[in-house]
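Input.
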Amino acid sequence: MLLPAKSEVARQLRHYRAWERSMLASPTDVTVRTTFEDSGYTLCVLMGKRCAREAADAAERYLRTNLVTHAQEQPERFAPSGHKAPSGAA
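Output.
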């Protein structure tokens, strides 16, 4: 699966959260609600989810996975100095 740039995910998640706060502060404002829903839709498309809340959760998980995933993919790079990576690691 092709993954979006983390910088774009972070930007869209910030945008969604800002409009979420505005919508909660002014729930009867049609313009605020529409913009909030639009930002949720954008996040859904970006994260491949059908629900904005699920998309926001997925975005947060995706943004947290950077170092752990990278360390698992390249163990020799993260081995303590003076130690060799396990044989078989390239």
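The chain has four helices and no strands.
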